[in-house]
Write a structure and sequence with these properties.
This protein has 3 helices and 6 strands, in the order βββαββααβ. With 101 residues, the chain is an alpha+beta fold. The protein has a single domain, classed as 2-Layer Sandwich (Alpha-Beta Plaits), CATH 3.30.70.
Amino acid sequence: MTKHIVLWRLNKNAYGNDKQKNAQILKEKLLAMKGKVDGLLKIEVGFDFSNEKDSCDVVLYSEFSSKEALHRYQIHPDHQDIKKWINDVRYERRVIDYEIS
């Protein structure tokens, strides 16, 4: 199994929306990927409530059946559209991909 975790810090405003609205839009866009990519087993999106100085605003946690399934997700046209949109919404991104047996 392959896990893909992404954390974002969002701009205060983008596309005429505040950070909270864009976080919600991002969540909806990401969750809409469910069922569109063969091998995408699980997808969750959460919002930080701690407001620590080092915390991020949004996290994506996803599980894939394989590295190949993660690759299919990454090149999927809907995912490519999300990436274009999020580039104007976020100012920082962290990602980790790893496998478990």
